[in-house]
Amino acid sequence: MRVIQITDCHLLADPEGASRKGFPLRQLQAVVRRAAQLRPDVLLVTGDVSQDETSATYRLASEAFARLGCPWFWIPGNHDQPELMEEWQPALDEIDLEHWRILLLDTRISGQPGGAVGQTQLQHLAAQLEDDDRPTLIAMHHPPIAIGSVWMDAIGLEDRDAFWQTLAAYPQVRAILCGHIHQAFAAWQGLVAVYGCPATSDQFLPGSHEFSVDEAARPGLRVVDLEGELLSTWIERVEL
After folding, report:
1. pLDDT (tens digit per residue) in 97-137
2. Is 0.85 surpassed by the pTM of this model?
3. Cβ neighbours of residue 221 under 8 Å, at least 6 residues apart?
4. Which helix or strand (DSSP H or E) is residue 185 part of?
């Protein structure tokens, strides 16, 4: 089973609209072309699909994702409007991958750059994990641990301690896939791996004290292969 994660597209309603360092739609299309070559079984999009929070951006994204010819799923980020996303693809809280499953969390706080899981969603997550002990991935927009960038860590997951306390009782959780940070990242929290993913739009400079764009890094995606109970993962970058 091959899952491909893409994230932080930051699309504009104008297909030719520019970001700080590139053209978001062209970059997304290049990443999708590379994803297609990798033959995914599932595409997972971990938030900030839109930059200008318009329905047109979700239409552009949906058209791009559909070209992969596989099921695709998304969760909102802090720049997204969930009600507009629903017009193009309903939000789910679980993806059944037969031997594995992915649980999807909405960490968006309306009007805020940082995020939180929230008590209600944590209770639901615990119930999901209590009912099924298959190996599990969790997908969320905001990273549940500090990544070493002062400005980004200030707008991460507010209730990360409560999140990890919830997971402590459920060893079937093998990894967390997150967006938001616009860079490749891998770390461990106990026995759980935490993976960040390059954006399809501009990249952020790792280890920075203040907001900084990484002008040398290219857009990319994360590949996650699931075989039996084993997980392997790596980053792919694209040339523009």
Report:
1. 999 999 999 999 999 999 999 999 999 999 999 989 999 99
2. yes
3. 4, 5, 6, 31, 34, 35, 197, 198, 200, 235, 236
4. strand 185-189
Max CA separation in the chain (angstroms)? 48
pLDDT tens sequence across 37-96: 999 999 999 999 999 999 999 999 999 999 999 999 999 999 999 999 999 999 899 999
User: 230 CB contacts (<8 Å, ≥6 apart)?
Assistant: none
Rounded (5°) CA angle 123-128-129: 100
β pairing state of 72-74 and 94-97: unpaired
Angle between helices 119-131 and 160-167 (to 10 degrees): 20
Structure tokens at 12: 């504009």
